Amino acid sequence: MTRPTTLADFRYDPDSDDDFIDTKFVAIEIARLLSEGDTQSVADFLVSQEIADVAAWLEELDTAPAMQAMRLLPLHDQAEVIGYLRPASQMIVAAQMGRRELARVMSAMSHDERADLFKQLDADAQEALLPSLSQAEREDLRRLAAFEEGTVGAVMTSDYATLRPEMTTSEALEALRAQAVDAETIYTAYIVDAGRALIGVLSLRDLLIARPRQKVVEIMDGEPIYVRAEAEQEEAARLIARYDLIALPVCDADDRLVGIVTADDAMDVAEEEVTEDIYKGSTLGPIETSVKDATIVMLYKARIYWLVLLVFGNIFSGAGIAAFEETIAAHLALLFFLPLLIASGGNAGTQSATLMVRALATGDVRPMDFGRLLGREVLIALALGLTMAAAVAVIGVWRGGPEIAVVVSLAMVVIVLMGALIGMSLPFIFARLDRDPAAASGPLVTSLADVLGVVMYFSIARVVLEI
Amino acid sequence: MTRPTTLADFRYDPDSDDDFIDTKFVAIEIARLLSEGDTQSVADFLVSQEIADVAAWLEELDTAPAMQAMRLLPLHDQAEVIGYLRPASQMIVAAQMGRRELARVMSAMSHDERADLFKQLDADAQEALLPSLSQAEREDLRRLAAFEEGTVGAVMTSDYATLRPEMTTSEALEALRAQAVDAETIYTAYIVDAGRALIGVLSLRDLLIARPRQKVVEIMDGEPIYVRAEAEQEEAARLIARYDLIALPVCDADDRLVGIVTADDAMDVAEEEVTEDIYKGSTLGPIETSVKDATIVMLYKARIYWLVLLVFGNIFSGAGIAAFEETIAAHLALLFFLPLLIASGGNAGTQSATLMVRALATGDVRPMDFGRLLGREVLIALALGLTMAAAVAVIGVWRGGPEIAVVVSLAMVVIVLMGALIGMSLPFIFARLDRDPAAASGPLVTSLADVLGVVMYFSIARVVLEI
Fold first, then answer.
1. Do B292 and A359 lie within an 8 Å CB cutoff?
2. Which of B 269-298 lie inside 8 A of A, CB atoms?
3. How many Å lie between the alpha carbon of A193 and the closest alpha carbon of chain B?
4. b/e map of B41-65 (b: 16 or more CB within 10 Å)?
5. CB–CB contact B307 A384 (8 Å)
6. What is the chain A residue with the closest CA to B51?
7. In this complex, do B241 and A264 lie within 8 Å of one another by their Cβ atoms?
8. Which domain CATH number covers A367?
């Protein structure tokens, strides 16, 4: 692939695998053209490109050229670009705009992205902005912004398409056409009664293949899948994935339609959820922003809690060693195998925990499968332990003689079995107690396996070596 | 919430949070009604329900009632249900059906799911099935089944909707209506020339709001985002997420349209990818099937490789300890802090690695951000190390006196800093070498941190205690 040398040459290339270099190149070109006063070339280029790419280029630019480039776009595109920017960049854009300009752009934004942006503004900026918005926009903003982070209400959007049950299919098609510009999606329409209660959903596909005289109520799905605005976000993501939905309707406690969650927003929620689970499984606290934007203090706080807790956990391992000081002093060769044995229990345990946490998260395994899987895990752990014991037996003879080899091999089998059972059981126990199984992985398993490993190793050593 | 007592009472309930009990209840009811010969009630119930749910209930039933229940559904629903079943269950269904019945159902399946099912059949079953399929279906199957696992071609489907550039918008709408029953989606249509080269995409939304006399070529997006059939699956998932697409067109090397990847298939790919990354980061090899269906041998193989490798890795830690036997024998109290210090380096390192691997995977951080993040990491690690040193200093004085306390505190700061730098750097190094950063986390970081931790601890001890 040859690299483009001017913006006019630049086009989407599925065979390029270095997005970053392209991004950098385009950003530099935009800055150069703007500094030369050639705004027309930049405008022509930007309007022909994907909004997500335009946002990525603006992220690379300094504030002044970024604002200049963005203002070359039509209002609706500006609104979309802002939706793609990182929160930190959105705040810069909002600060650069006068309240009138900001209000105009926000009116054109999709309702959920507008509410997200609004929530980030400080109270003064919020108050300053409100008078420039329409009554309906103000109310919509206040309503969406009121939902707690992590709930469906906080990710849903209110710009959905609705139909009335008594419409004919041709009236319905006309109604969707009229809503097509503003609605987040028109591929699924929501049928509401006079009190805005959700009574059905209808896909545009089913509407298109219906006969022109049929009524919406006859062809709609009258028992739609929906979710409550107060439910957890992951519930919406789970339903969209399970039922392969384009969008999921959201109702309040009285079954009134209050919003929808789209599949692409659900993908973002699922990604956040995975990140959260990965952090939980590895001694990291929640981090409110992206790692790149996080401050030193935020990262320190997210990391110190578990690290200090594990310091105290490891004190128990130390106490275990101290309890066997005499045995160790008499057989210093035992120390050679100490890191190996305690690490092996932790490693086998972490494997089991990782498998079980992931299987529980994807729904592949359910809490009631525990019994059936336990027997299998014992067999696997025995096989793993015996293989590893064979591997260390040779080293045991060489470093400490046949007696040490027996101790180390025996301890290996016992410790791997114990580690695997802890790693497998903890996620199930957490699930049964209605806590997140992800919190059971990594550190907790390793710490438990470490302490028990030390005690088992030296107990076996004492028994075998001192008879 | 009150539980339903008959199938007729059963309906979707957004406020129930125990899917499993509902699933179990419905499966038992279906089995009971079938054993009483009341097939009509079962049929009425099943056709009114979501396909994904029907599949979940069939999974709970024994083979005979499951087959009986499935055959109560219309052909098209049967085809869809099979697409939702786990691969192991699909094989049971295929084995239960005669080749004629199987061919009929497979003709009704979506093309990608049909190809997936076909690939799982053994060679004899494949040969037996082919004559019962149409010529076009045979060719489609062979073509889709030929793509290597992990490529876009292996997840794409060939039942997409196409339009010709010279059509008017009303002709285009008619054409989509005609393709609506068979196409995987009609919300995005693909415009191809006479040689099937992809020359544009058009959303149904844009088609609906266009004027009736406009031509497709005037309103289509003539520079569509697309992907090659030979590219990696994750590339398709990444593009769909980045550009918020409903479906992504797939072209061969000559830019001819050969398939599409839909957003819901991309979600499945993204989930698999996350699972793969999590496994890589925790000493697990690839597991071809679900954990629940995996055999003991499969799980043993996926786990033993790294465990034995780590045995040899930990031998180095043991050798490190052996090298300091004299120092240890003279100050046995040092052993008390050994598990603590080596674990702390590993824990801090794993945190850094987890943060960086995830940030690189989501695109939040790019390989060239390394320099900027390194300085921040040093400051955070120093802050973490100092806090942890303060926590152990007290215990150091109590267990071993002031000299040991100095050794342990000093070692803690050095080891945490070293662990954090290893954990942060490895993912970046892997990314630079074009290897998957996920492989750099957990075990590798911990092993490196362990060996270096042992050496640093006892080196500091020797210097401080023997002057």
1. yes
2. 270-271, 274-275, 278-279, 282-284, 290-292, 296
3. 20
4. bbbebbeebbbbbbbbbbebbeeeb
5. yes
6. A243
7. yes
8. 1.10.357.20
How far is Cα B82 from Cα B74, in angstroms, rounded to an integer?
Answer: 13
Distance of CA A63 to the CA centre of its chain: 29
- Are residues B141 and B63 part of one domain? yes
Q: Name every chain A residue with its beta carbon within 8 A of the beta carbon of B271.
A: 241, 270, 362
Based on the fold, state whether residues B235 and B109 are members of the same structural domain: no
> Which CATH number do you get for residue B121?
1.25.60.10
Q: How far is B309 from chain A (nearest CA, A)?
A: 10
Residue at token pair 């600060």: A95
Residues B461 and B335 in one domain: yes
Which among B224, B282, B454 is the nearest to A354, CB-wise? Answer: B282
- For B357, the token pair is 């691997």
What is this model's ipTM? 0.87
Q: Is the residue at B275 inside a domain?
A: no
Instruction: Give the nearest partner residue to B315 out of A187, A290, A395, using CB atoms.
Output: A395
Query: What's the gap in Å between the CA of A131 and the closest CA on chain B?
Result: 33
Q: Is the pLDDT of residue B1 over 50?
A: no
| Non-local CB neighbours of B311 within 8 Å, separated by 6+ positions | A340, A344, A388, A391, A392
Residue B122 domain flag: yes
Residues B406 and B446 in one domain: yes
Enter the tokens of residue B157. 């489907």
- Residue B49 DSSP code: S
Q: Determine whether the interchain pair A291/B369 forms a contact, defined as Cβ–Cβ distance below 8 Å.
A: no
- A25 inside 8 A of chain B by CB: no
Our count of domains for chain B comes to 3
> Residue-wise pLDDT tens for chain A (467 aa)?
455 667 877 777 888 766 666 888 899 999 999 999 999 999 999 998 999 999 999 999 999 999 999 999 999 999 999 999 999 999 999 999 989 999 999 999 999 999 999 999 999 999 999 999 999 999 999 999 999 999 999 999 999 999 999 999 999 999 999 999 889 999 999 999 999 999 999 999 999 999 989 999 999 999 999 999 999 999 999 999 999 999 999 999 999 999 999 999 999 898 888 888 888 777 788 777 788 888 889 889 888 988 888 888 888 888 889 899 889 888 888 989 998 898 899 889 988 998 998 888 888 888 888 888 899 999 999 999 999 999 999 888 888 889 999 999 999 999 999 999 999 999 999 888 888 888 766 778 888 998 999 999 999 999 998 76
| Residue B257 bridge partners (DSSP) | B251
| Domain enclosing residue A112, as ranges | 7-147
Find the CB nearest A296 among B314, B366, B376.
B376
Q: Which residues of A touch B279 (CB under 8 A)?
A: 354, 358
Q: Quick check: is B232 in a domain?
A: yes
Residues A248 and A300 in one domain: no
More confident residue, B295 or A105: A105
Give the gyration radius of chain B's Cα atoms: 30
* B247-251/B257-262 β-pairing: antiparallel
B209 with A274: Cβ contact below 8 A: no
CA neighbours closer than 13 Å in the CB half-sphere of residue B59:
20
Instruction: Measure the CA–CA gap between B265 and B83, rounded to whole angstroms.
Output: 12
Query: What is the pLDDT, as a whole number, of residue B3?
Result: 58
Is A347 touching B (CB cutoff 8 A)? Answer: yes
Query: Reading across the β-sheet that carries B188-192, which strands appear in turn?
Result: B162-163, B188-192, B198-203
Query: To the nearest whole number, what is the mean pLDDT of chain B?
Result: 91
Please indicate if any CB of chain A lies within 8 Å of the CB of B194. Answer: no
